[in-house]
């Protein structure tokens, strides 16, 4: 037998693909440059920031993070943020999943009306209801408490959670629930045994959005909480800005500490998030 060598022909690269990759590189630089600059500033001293703000630090001042942690009481603020965001995340996902399952899989007259009702809730800005909420919560004694802060967080998190999970539940085949009903599985069994395990990617997506939105929220936490020991992390960052001077290096060090949890969470679950976004967009 004669050995026949076949040359592999390379497909020419289309100009459109080159343009797309160039745009992606530019977009990555636009997103990463501010983060790298903040990291660089957090490792300088104030004199180095004023003289050359965009240069790399000559000496790395890691003590800025220790001073920011102690002076800003970031440990207490971090615990408060984890507590508020964690409880809000669990409650909003649980009740949001039940409402989304009822809208997507159960047959009742007002299902589409309720779906539209929750979608309208996504369009209401928090600034419109801030003063009425504060007045009402002050009369009920819910201000200056973490429980009182969780209530509006849960309220504003539910519409997005219901919207995303409704698409996931609608993308599930109806024959699966019909077969389970024939085998004697009730509505709660279909929800807890079938729908919830198959909707893990949806929980990743909606959970991450809920967590990031509440983690970075500033206005409600600043208005509702007055006790420094109960304030969340975004409110604590404002302590580094004084009326006459600003400690930039400690402020940027505190910002890096504040955004680190969200970056780590997104990096760990990025594949599930992308998969969830594509899966939930099939129907609904």
What is the C-alpha radius of gyration, as a whole number of Å? 25 Å
State the CATH topology: MetI-like fold
Mean pLDDT: 84
CATH class annotation: Mainly Alpha
Strand fraction: under 5%
Q: Major β-sheet, in short?
A: none
Helix content: over 70%
Number of DSSP-assigned strands: 0
- Find the structural class using helix and strand composition: mainly alpha
Q: Whole-Å distance between the termini? A: 59 Å
Q: Quick one: CATH superfamily?
A: MetI-like
What does this protein structure show overall?
The protein has 284 residues and is an all-alpha fold. It has one domain: Orthogonal Bundle (MetI-like fold). The protein has 14 helices and no strands. The chain has helices at 15-42, 46-51, 63-71, 74-105, 111-121, 126-140, 146-171, 174-182, 187-198, 200-215, 219-224, 233-237, 248-268, 270-280. Helix 3 (63-71) packs across helix 13, helix 4 (74-105) runs parallel beside helix 7 (146-171) and helix 7 (146-171) packs antiparallel against helix 10 (200-215). The longest helix is centred in the N-terminal third of the chain and has 32 residues, at 74-105. It is globular.
Brief sketch in words of this structure:
By secondary structure, this protein is mainly α. The chain has a single domain, classed as MetI-like (MetI-like fold), CATH 1.10.3720.10.
How does the SSE layout of this entry go?
Layout: H1 15-42, H2 46-51, H3 63-71, H4 74-105, H5 111-121, H6 126-140, H7 146-171, H8 174-182, H9 187-198, H10 200-215, H11 219-224, H12 233-237, H13 248-268, H14 270-280
